[in-house]
Specification:
Porin, mainly beta, ten-stranded antiparallel beta sheet
């Protein structure tokens, strides 16, 4: 996963002079549970605190429609000092439902029409993530999981240089993220159980456009 971040960072720096890039800060409300055919339907919560997330993205779009793509890398943690860490990649796709058939100079920079019509989008974001647990003694080995995500947002064009975008989203681990062995009351290993993490996300994204000669 570290090499993915390094590669993405190099591509981002190499293209920044003629591209649109963004940075997003989220606060994640996390819900972690044991799920599966043998999971306890009542006592199934896992200890996983809320916490912040930072994400970096690159931007490109379809040439004739308002469908835009944001390959994104992110890092999130739970708790203040010790807790779960998550680093991952998401391929975010923004679909502008009320402006799908236009070919505007987007994202919604400057004054380009009604804000809701031009700026509102639905976001879909499949991805992959790496999870590990930090304790006072050590970093415990983690596991790689596939993720599914969705959200909504609206662009507010501040100028030709910058757009601010409030976003509400969620991300769900479609596979186990804990790499834990689950035991029953007799201390025996129980199969058919995995850890599932749902992050309810509130954040704001700043998108910068460096291919404009005048801002």
């Amino acid at each position: 996963m570290r090499y993915l971040f390094l590669l993405f960072g190099c591509l981002l720096l190499g293209s920044v002079v003629s591209a649109q890039v963004g940075i997003t800060g989220f606060y994640n409300l996390n819900e972690a549970r044991m799920v599966g055919e043998n999971a306890d339907p009542v006592n199934n919560e896992l200890d996983y605190a809320n916490g912040p997330e930072i994400a970096l993205n690159y931007w490109f779009r379809l040439p004739k429609n308002r469908i835009e793509f944001q390959p994104t890398v992110y890092y999130a943690r739970s708790g203040e000092r010790y807790g779960w860490n998550e680093a991952g990649f998401q391929f975010k796709t923004n679909i502008y439902l009320f402006d799908l058939g236009t070919d505007c100079d987007c994202p919604t920079f400057g004054k380009q029409g009604p804000q809701l019509e031009k700026g509102f989008f639905l976001q879909l974001s499949p991805g992959v993530s790496r999870h590990w647990l930090s304790t006072a003694a050590e970093n415990l080995s983690g596991k790689t999981a596939f993720t599914l995500g969705a959200g909504i947002g609206i662009d507010f064009g501040i100028s030709n240089l910058i757009t601010l975008t409030p976003i509400a989203a969620l991300r769900y681990t479609a596979t186990d993220f804990t790499d834990m062995i689950f035991l029953n009351r007799d201390g025996l290993e129980v199969s058919g159980i995995r850890g599932a993490l749902t992050a309810y996300q509130l954040g704001i994204q700043a998108t910068f456009r460096f291919d404009k000669k005048r801002y």
